[in-house]
Design a protein that fits this description.
With 203 residues, this protein is an alpha/beta fold. 32% of the residues lie in helices and 19% in strands. The protein contains seven helices and six strands, in the order βββαβαβαβαααα. Strands 1-2-4-3-5-6 form a six-stranded mixed β-sheet, with helices on both faces. The longest helix has 14 residues.
């Protein structure tokens, strides 16, 4: 089981999971997720890599410096956080960087700024600047409604009080308990009971 740790970097407290031995591998979660989503992956990779899975700024147990959606929360800021995170942990060798969703946007910025710090780069469910108007095409909007909703100034107040039971309300009726361990359900619920993650600009 990975160790849960904190490090002070770029003027925030970054929470992260760490486990394994070998070349360094960093896992960046998507939105609105947190580092715990990587636990099964960490378990599979710990014999071959030293794995780091941070909570991005505003997510999970990492500092949430903004009370709600803000133009100050950018992929550049999150890439700065990643660079400072690696510096503070003295990760001096090039790292493999695996990234999902919003984490993939952060990884793109980091890779453009620091190509020498990377041994490999992998994106999945990756938004990118070339998607253009397709992002808001009628057949795509239903797939990403939650992103627009969570950027509204009143969304956190509307959703936050009800988060405690929401995950189990999904897992139980669908009979997913055999696939989603109670420990993971509790971890996700705890992450979403703290101050809600914030929205940020892609640019």
């Amino acid at each position: 089981m990975p160790t849960s740790l904190y490090v002070r970097a770029n003027d925030i407290d970054i929470h992260f999971l760490r486990e394994g031995r070998g070349p360094p591998l960093v896992l960046l979660h998507g939105w609105p997720e947190f580092c715990g989503v990587w636990e099964p992956v960490i378990s599979a990779l710990r014999d071959r890599f030293e794995v780091f899975a941070p909570d991005l700024r505003g997510f999970g147990d990492t500092t949430k410096p903004y009370p709600g959606p803000t133009e100050a929360m950018t992929s550049q800021v999150l890439a700065d956080d990643l660079s400072a995170f690696l510096d503070t942990l003295d990760v001096n060798h090039p790292v493999g960087l695996v990234s999902h969703d919003v984490g993939a946007i952060v990884a793109q910025v980091f890779a453009r700024r620091h190509p020498a710090r990377l041994s490999g780069l992998f994106f999945f469910n990756c938004p990118h600047s070339g998607i253009g108007s397709r992002w808001i095409s009628p057949n795509h909007v239903p797939e990403v409604w939650y992103q627009t909703f969570n950027c509204l100034p009143w969304s956190a107040a509307m959703v936050h009080p009800h988060r405690a039971s929401s995950l189990d309300d999904v897992v139980t009726p669908l009979g997913l308990h055999s696939l989603v361990p109670d420990r993971m359900v509790q971890s996700v619920e705890r992450a979403f009971q703290v101050a809600p993650a914030v929205a940020f600009r892609l640019g």
